[in-house]
Specification:
Strand content: 5-15%
Radius of gyration: 42 Å
Shape: elongated
Number of helices: 20
Strand order of the largest sheet: 6-8-9-10-7-11
Distance between the termini: 35 Å
Largest sheet: 6 strands, mixed
Number of strands: 17
Helix content: 40-55%
Length: 648
């Protein structure tokens, strides 16, 4: 979605909550520099008119010559000039004149010569008030004008030293927000919740007549890129009300008290333009939980949060001001911010399912020339785990790849290449030795064979030994047939076998292991430890959670500080033994599967060395599998969904 141009408005107008008049642009203040330039020009004209010498200028030698010829009648001697008037007009440069001016020089005999030729002469007294006034008034006027100019810039609406307390929020008029619910897809549940907010802003009496009260605040929670900001703008676009948009970090400044002042200014502007929507993105920047630590706390952030809590308490929901916030770290927000009466309603904006991804792709391909044979359903099925921003990036990458090849439209191959680029990274053209390529070929063949042979796993879509991304020498891409939310213990054990299959294939084929399985071992160890400590999938330790705290935040892959759960040293040793047992069983399973299919391993590795990239259908044909396996059945337990690709 293209960015909308923001509008700068005049002072908040007073009026009724239902007043929908468009906001008028404020007049731009005229700069003081133009007044200063005009004043200087006027003074220059006055000086040129009053202080300019009278008469035509002539050289001093010509003046003396005229005196000796007895043609001069009167002479006025000044400090720097000499004015003379002739007895009869004289021709000079084609024009006749009887008044001339020359520059005075040091001539002691001038008076004697004038008396000898009978010339009337007198001295000239010039008033010096005008040059003196100009000498001290001009600098004073210039400094005052310069000070006024910078003072306006410092305290103006553009911001500056004198405008720290002003809110930095961008204001969009009701006609500037062009986003509607038609531009949003894949978040049907959140959209239904927000339609009630739109209905209240359009027709508040429908609720107030029954004594109902609209929620003061709506908090949008979800992973990054799922469209939280887009949803907030869609609500403003549907309701046709002004929209205040700013980030939580814009409240925080180096000076104490500035954030609280900006919160007050924001709510004052919002009340003046009600009904409206105030959207605060990244709310966790100012809404983190308040804690008392021995080394002190962040007083500025806490003052800003306290002011926000006070303003939301003092808000009258009948005025039609809706506060919307967005965050992907709801677990760190202060409980006082989430209580009823402030952010009454929390709406989850999660990643879309396969139908949602298809709808999002249709929105983002509106302005793209897509080939007729492109099936968006297939692309949606291959992009499990993608958020709305990821899909928008995917469409853009496909269009750029097609333009690079000078195509007239974007075809299926461009989308496939874009998926590989987004998931696995940029393709590298580096040269590898034959031995290293052989190790990578056996490694990826082991992943692919075990993933195809064991039930309950996502089918293999592509195998590649082309270097991509940061240190990925090859990859095996598995794409699910459907979205999965639960995994059984058998599914996790099979997934462990797939992760360890690359290292096992190296052992069987080459009799040696390499460092290429580092990421596989790390992921396998994490899954095995989660099975024991979080999911209760260990028979010896029982259905007990030993984790204590969540390992990562809810929507971000940010680990909490390492902290052992509430168990003894003996239990920790048992957990380590059980984790090792589960990993060794998965290793044995992978070794058994690959040993039974040793010929397939050799054949697939040689094909990879020749072609570098093999599709999943060719793999299944080589293994004698005619159709894709359905998902395995079993007792459902909560577990992390598998990733779309495996990079080595």
């Amino acid at each position: 979605m293209a960015d909308k141009k923001t509008s700068r408005f005049s002072k908040p107008r007073s009026g009724r909550p239902g007043d929908r008049r468009p906001l008028t642009p404020a007049p731009r203040p005229t700069s003081s520099v133009w007044y200063v330039l005009g004043f200087l020009l006027l003074l220059g004209l006055v000086q040129a008119y009053f202080l300019a010498p009278s008469g035509r200028p002539i050289p001093y030698s010509d003046f003396k010559e005229l005196v000796r010829k007895d043609q001069v009648k009167d002479v006025t001697i000044g400090e720097s000039t000499v004015h003379l008037k002739l007895k009869a007009p004289s021709m000079r440069d084609g024009r006749a004149s009887d008044t001339f001016t020359t520059t005075r020089v040091d001539d002691p005999k001038l008076v004697e010569e004038l008396e000898a030729h009978g010339v009337n002469f007198t001295g000239e007294t010039v008033s010096k008030w005008l040059p003196e006034v100009l000498g001290w008034i001009l600098p004073v006027v210039f400094l005052l004008a310069l000070f006024s100019f910078f003072f306006r810039r410092m305290g103006g609406p553009e911001g500056g030293v004198m405008s720290f307390a002003r809110s930095r929020g961008k204001i969009y008029a009701e006609d500037d927000v062009k986003v509607s619910f038609a531009d949003v897809a894949g978040v049907d549940e959140a959209e239904e919740e927000l339609k009630e907010i739109v209905e209240f802003l359009r027709n508040p009496k429908k609720y107030t007549n029954l004594g109902g009260r609209i929620p003061k605040g709506v908090l949008l929670v979800g992973p990054p890129g799922t469209g939280k900001t887009l949803l907030a703008r869609a609500v403003a676009g549907e309701a046709k009300v002004p929209f205040f948009s700013l980030s939580g970090s814009e409240f925080v400044e180096m000076f104490v008290g500035v954030g609280a002042a900006r919160v007050r200014d924001l709510f004052q502007q919002a009340e003046a333009k009600a009904p409206c929507i105030v959207f605060i993105d990244e709310l966790d920047a100012i809404g983190k939980v308040r804690v008392q630590s021995p080394i002190g706390s962040h007083e500025e952030r806490e003052q800003t949060l306290n002011q926000l809590l006070a303003e939301m308490d003092g808000f009258d929901s009948r005025k039609g001001v809706i506060i919307m916030g967005a965050t992907n770290r709801a677990e760190v927000l202060d409980p006082a911010l989430l209580r009823p009466g402030r952010f009454d309603r929390q709406i989850l904006v999660d990643k879309p399912d396969v139908r949602g991804r298809e709808a999002i792709l249709r929105i983002h391909t509106r302005g793209v020339k897509v080939a007729p044979d492109v099936d968006l359903k297939v692309i949606a099925a291959r992009t499990a785990g993608f958020a709305g921003a990821d899909l928008a990036n995917l469409v853009n990458e496909a269009a750029l790849l097609a333009a690079r090849k000078n195509k007239s439209n974007v075809g299926p191959g461009d989308f496939d290449e874009a998926i590989d680029r987004v998931i696995a990274g940029l393709e590298k053209k580096r040269v590898m030795s034959h031995k290293e390529r052989q190790i990578v070929a056996y490694h990826e063949s082991g992943h692919a064979i075990v993933a195809t042979a064991l039930p309950g796993l996502d089918p293999v879509h592509k195998i590649s030994i082309v270097q991509r991304g940061f240190g990925a020498l090859g990859y095996t891409m598995q794409l699910p047939l459907e979205d999965r939310y639960l995994m059984t213990r058998t599914d996790l054990r099979h997934q462990l076998a797939v992760l360890l299959a690359g290292r096992t294939a190296e052992e069987i084929a080459l009799g040696e292991i390499s460092t290429g399985a580092q990421n596989d071992l790390m992921r396998a160890s994490d899954i095995a430890r989660s099975m024991v400590t979080e999911f209760g999938m260990s028979d010896s330790l029982g259905a007990v959670s030993y984790n204590g705290h969540h390992r990562t935040t809810r929507f971000l892959d940010l680990p909490f500080p390492a902290e052992r759960g509430p168990y003894s040293e003996e239990t920790a040793q048992e957990i380590d033994i059980e984790v090792k047992r589960i990993v060794e069983e998965a290793h044995a399973l992978a070794r058994r599967v690959l040993s039974d299919r040793r010929e397939v391993l050799e054949s697939l590795s040689h094909r990879l060395l020749e072609k570098e990239v093999i599709e999943g259908d060719e793999l299944r044909e080589l293994m004698g599998v005619t159709a894709l396996k359905p998902q395995g059945e079993g007792v459902p337990v909560e577990g992390p969904p598998p990733g779309p690709a495996r990079n080595e």
